[in-house]
Amino acid sequence: MSPLQQGSLLEMTMLKLFGIIFFCGLLSPSQEVLSGLSCAVSPGAMQNVLSDAILQNGLLQQHLQGLVLPNIMGEGGLLNSPTSITGLHLVKVRLPRLSVVLLPGIGVQLTIAAKLELSGNCLVGLLSELIDILVDVNITANIKCTNFESGTVQVVIEDCLCILGAIKIKLLSGLLSLSVNEIVLNQLTATLPGLLCPVVDIVVNLVNIQLLGTLNAVIPVGTAGTIHYQLASLPFTSGLFLGLDLDGAVKQVGGSIIPHDSSPSALPPLLDKLLVLGLRQSFLNAVLSLLIQIPPQTFTCTPEVFSGASRLQEAITTLVPAGCPSCHGTSPLSIKLTLFGNPLILLEENKATVELSVMIQVFIKHLDGPILNLLLLKADLGLNAHVSVAGGRLVLGLSLGSTSLSLESSDVGISNISNLKPHCSSLLAETLLPLINGALGIGIPLPNVLGIPLIKVDIQILAVSVRKGYFFLQGTGAGHWDCF
Q1: Of 57, 184, 330, 374, which one is least surrounded by beta carbons within 10 A?
Q2: Residue 247: C-alpha distances to residues 19, 41, 188 (Å)
Q3: Would the pTM count as exceeding 0.90?
Q4: What does the alpha-carbon distance between residue 83 and residue 74 come to, in Å, rounded to a whole number?
Q5: Which residues of 169-202 are buried (b: 16+ CB within 10 A; e: fewer)?
Q6: 345: closest CA among 430, 403, 287, 278?
Q7: Facing residues of 139 across strands?
Q8: Contact, 353 vs 383, CB < 8 A?
């Protein structure tokens, strides 16, 4: 790759998914269902970012700069003297504008309109002087994606058309006949399309290479593992949006992948939004399993650890049968908390709940004897989730909503635990829940779709069926999003 191409790639690093979305509008509207992580992008959003990528960042100017045109020869100067224009080259691209149209089942139509400033030497008879030409051009190209494989696609430009508009010719002497204007127009009409369309092809392919590399990103999730986002299939276009399907492979440290369902689902309409990003419930469950990996917690039941320690110990002591002399004493009880199974997030309309099970072991450890297990309880927790987006990450904060307590075993014959529920709820809220929220605080890294920062987020949740729902992030503009 040449240094010029490398420089162009570096200039594109902030474009992220926008180029991929733009270049990959290929499949038919009948395929408007997506799996795993789904997003739909409006034509306006693509147009804004692509305009920044190709025009504002100077990529088009960079590859057109110094473009050399063939010499123009003809009759038509003063007194029909022979006229030749040599050394004609492009000096500057003026007032470029870019527009995007989504073509259902075909791809994306890109149109670039600009004024090209050309300069060269003009020889009319024996008189030689500089000549400046300003020509309006309109380049239209249909762009497709083909050959999807392992997260990559190739881009193909079809039907590139270059139409010339008004031409202004300026000679220092001002001595120029109308026939020279006609000669220049005819020659530029014949030669410019063959020069400009290959440049557009180069620009499109450079953007595609860079953005594919950005899209296929491995993002760390703290020290627990990674999420590998990757293009999952050829995207599709409708007249209203371009749909993109992403795989989000959740991998633990050590290489094992946490599986999650990625069956298809329909996206909500864009309406006036720039982008919709849908996160499947099953994907979120996989990431929660990665984040919430709290080792067993063992501690003595004292007020320094748990404010309700005395009340919990008193409640348990009253349940111990009288025939257990070793159960009674002045030493504090010991408690071991162990997560049981994987967390499960449940999505309802405008509500997210995390279900989590915890084993609570209450025991006495005598200095001169074995461990005596008073209780082994199972607590099924319903944790209310507060969802926000910060720093490009989906952050969940949990609070205790409900507790269901069941007795698993007791070595001393305890059978009725109904009075222990409020004490155990307080125990878990004070000791385990802060650890879980600490683990969740790093957030779930989101794909950097379009390079638009996810800030000022209003969150709503869409439930499709029992145990099946979605977070849909919907962008109304730069820096403002809604989440469904």
Answers
A1: 330
A2: 18, 17, 47
A3: no
A4: 5
A5: beeeeeebbeebeebbbebbeeebbebbbebbbe
A6: 287
A7: 112, 162
A8: yes
